[in-house]
Known about the structure:
Elements: H1 15-34, H2 46-50, H3 63-73, H4 96-108, H5 118-134, E1 141-145, H6 148-163, H7 168-171, E2 180-185, H8 191-198, E3 206-209, H9 219-231, E4 235-242, H10 254-264, E5 267-271, E6 296-300, E7 312-316, H11 319-326, H12 333-336, H13 343-347, H14 361-396, E8 401-403, E9 411-416, H15 423-440, E10 446-450, E11 453-459, H16 467-487
Parallel strand pairs: 2-3, 2-4, 4-5, 5-6
Antiparallel strand pairs: 1-7, 6-7, 8-9, 9-11, 10-11
Helix pairs in contact: 4-14, 5-14, 6-8, 6-11, 14-16, 15-16
Amino acid sequence: MVSKRNKYSLDPDDWSKQRALGHEMLDDMMTRLETIRDHDFHWPSEKEVKELMLPLPEKGTGERETYQIFKENILNFSLTHIKPNFWGVVAGTGSPYGMLVEMLVGGVNNLMAAKPGIGGYIHEQVIEWIKELLEYPAEAGGILVNGGSEANFTALAVARNAKAARDMKKEGVHGQPQRMVLYCSDQAHECIERSVELLGLGNEALRWVPTNENHSMNLNMLKKQIKQDRDSGYHPFCVIGTAGTTNNGAFDDFKALREIANQENMWFHVDGAFGSWLKLSVTHKHLSDGIELADSLAVDLHKWISMPYGIGCTLVRDKKAHFKTFVYGHEAEYIKSGQDLGDDQITSPHNLALALSRNNLNLKAYMLLRAYGREMYSGLVQQNLDQIKYFSGLIEANSSLELMAPVISNVVCFRYNPGGLGKEYLDSLNQGILQKIWEINFWIISDTHVKDQYMLRVCNVNNRTTKSDFDELVSDILRIGEQLMNTGE
């Protein structure tokens, strides 16, 4: 009788042992999340690193033994941005259910995301839900990608091709009669510059427009720059608005940018990696007014609404422009012949982004959106905003702390300043406070420069944070600041 088992197989000899190991792993990680407040971050020692950095074993270490290495040499040194007191970078905290969904995705291991496969329908529904939540036009299309950087890159590729004077896919950037230029505020995320470089436009094509006192793009300076570029023989093709700057959570005037884009025949894109979700807020929704007017919108699902890393999304108003940018050139010939495009072709994820082999992002997003619904996500966003208001109130109420920038959304920029100190010493003192705070929990807060001023920074997209966590932060900063001044460090 011929054996139905190969000599080499990744399936276990004993499924009961595999199941037992799986239950152990699941229980360990659930306990980790349940007790996450008790876990501190530490950098690995040289000895602990050496346990990982070794030649690939010929026979393999074994599943259980390798899991033990994970627990001892990886898990304990993983950055604990999922802790309740983590506000240093815009990093989502995930969820226990999200972890379980990741397991399902790995079990299904399905790359099919197009119709008639079930993944195609799931992707379509997720895009519809995201459009609904962000009030983006119903006729728009979209694609799930791996994060905000890829979401912005995808949108700007569509903008470049749609607004090119000549066929970009055939002639490239060097075939354009004028150099193409685009605009963003000086507070825009650096991934915009990376996209511009990778799209072959060159970073000199990106105009960093100064911001006003509210840290949003100066519209008069934008208009002046566009006119100057046109007079110099350039081709202004895109203006990029930012919904939530990294430095201090500022928002551009999207309605005004839409008008300027219309007047100048330019594409209007919004980088709304985390700030787009203010659409779900009661108190701050007005800041996101106008993102629905954009030709394209980039948003992350793994940041403010805490889905597993990494899930981003690009929404594009013009489905055909999106499709024509990424479909293979030879497959796009029938577009020129006037043939109609079927909806399944236009909405297929394989035709809307660079990747063909795709993680099953659709299933992750679908299950989490359906499990929790609008009310939960709206509540999480509003809860973080209320906590930031509370934290900024603590700063304003203490004479040794100082707000350094307007508190616009979910970011607070501040410093320790008991008074009577020079700028150079204040900067050094606050840098020292930051280092001491990092000894408590790495990257619990961060620092930045806004308008050439050094300051400490808190950004709250953490679904585990409570107001008491901010009480503790203020107490630690005051204690450390006083200690550093007394010791002269």
